[in-house]
UniProtKB/TrEMBL annotation:
<dbReference type="Pfam" id="PF13489">
    <property type="entry name" value="Methyltransf_23"/>
</dbReference>
<dbReference type="GO" id="GO:0008168">
    <property type="term" value="F:methyltransferase activity"/>
</dbReference>
<protein>
    <submittedName>
        <fullName>Methyltransferase domain protein</fullName>
    </submittedName>
</protein>
<dbReference type="InterPro" id="IPR029063">
    <property type="entry name" value="SAM-dependent_MTases_sf"/>
</dbReference>
<keyword id="KW-0808">Transferase</keyword>
<dbReference type="GO" id="GO:0032259">
    <property type="term" value="P:methylation"/>
</dbReference>
<keyword id="KW-0489">Methyltransferase</keyword>
């Protein structure tokens, strides 16, 4: 993983004070619920969970939640939310899917919201997502459409991805072992320098996965 954790450490305490982030997380969770329709017992793993906002909105509609993030600041906020009961049925995981430190169980849903553009080897991570999913499990990935370098232009020496082309992303998911992929428009990030569209990719494993 490209180490942007310090960037997020510095912002973790203030993260949930941005109403746009809360609104986006709520919209993301609702879109996942509408398109995947998990049952109330679904086991969920959120990769790069940040402060756990998406999981917060998923929580009333699924089963146990496992959250992982490599930013200590974000992990501290998640731990506080679990202790306060804001994230009931949630566990903070030490798993590191990029470094090969995998959880010891499989999940019905893997969620990754605006995190893959920070990952150097995306195809390898997609294979790992597939490997920790149950048969007919879903990886729900929210990402930026290819922004042609504009989205991160304000960050000096940015070394991640500036969004993804859907066709190429779908190919990577199928090559990673998923049986089918569905794309949904997931709104936009509005900034002073423009609007940046998002997608939700739901990648489903096969029945004999």
């Amino acid at each position: 993983m490209i180490d942007h954790s310090h960037f997020f450490d510095d912002r973790a305490a203030e993260w949930d004070k941005d109403p746009k982030k809360i609104e986006r997380a709520q919209h993301t969770a609702q879109l996942i619920l509408d398109t995947v329709a998990p049952n109330g017992e679904a086991e969920v793993f959120e990769f790069g969970a940040g402060t756990g906002l998406v999981s917060q909105f998923l929580s009333p509609h699924v089963g146990a939640l496992t959250l992982a993030d490599n930013s200590e600041g974000m992990r501290d906020v998640i731990a506080q939310k679990i202790e306060a009961g804001v994230l009931p049925e949630a566990t903070l995981s030490d798993s590191d899917l990029v470094q090969g430190k995998l959880p010891d169980q499989k999940y019905d849903l893997v969620v990754a919201s605006l995190v893959l553009h920070h990952v150097a080897d995306v195809p390898a991570l997609l294979k790992t997502f597939a490997s920790i999913l149950e048969p007919r499990g879903a990886a729900c990935i929210i990402e930026l459409d290819d922004a042609g370098g504009k989205f991160h232009a304000h960050i000096e020496h940015y070394d991640g991805h500036d969004g993804f082309k859907r066709e190429k992303f779908e190919k990577s998911l199928l090559e990673a072992g998923f049986a089918q992929v569905e794309f949904h428009d997931a709104g936009e990030i509005e900034r002073e320098d423009g609007s940046f569209s998002l997608f939700l990719a739901n990648a489903i494993t096969s029945e004999n996965h």
